[in-house]
């Protein structure tokens, strides 16, 4: 039986900067890469990551939006998220999720040519921390 709520998990994930985002390639292989969530984890079940159009990430999501996220945190915290990715190019939405630390990769901010926001809507979360483990199933 899970002892953590969605809010509990979100609070822990917001403190972790890096997630491994896993997509499936057009050849059926898995491709993982580190992505910064910029602390943008409000967790109504969504995580947000910036990337570039034309990247492997965008190509894979266009072919198959089912993705995985993995996080590792202090005190032996591990979180696995299965979800659906959406690509967002709408500038007001990009601005809403923008944080200054991202400027090191996107020099012109949300006006950087080819910038894309990836939203991952969680459908299933599994977590482990010491002897505590559980699963959360989210609607969608």
TrEMBL record:
Domain General stress protein FMN-binding split barrel: residue ranges: 8-131
Entries under SUPFAM superfamilies matching the protein: FMN-binding split barrel
A UniProt-annotated Pfam family: Pyrid_ox_like
Domain of life: Bacteria
Listed InterPro entries: Split_barrel_FMN-bd (IPR012349), Stress-Dev_Protein (IPR052917), YdaG_split_barrel_FMN-bd (IPR038725)
Cross-referenced PANTHER family: PROTEIN BLI-3
Official protein name in the record: Pyridoxamine 5'-phosphate oxidase
Organism: Hymenobacter persicinus
Lineage: Bacteria, Pseudomonadati, Bacteroidota, Cytophagia, Cytophagales
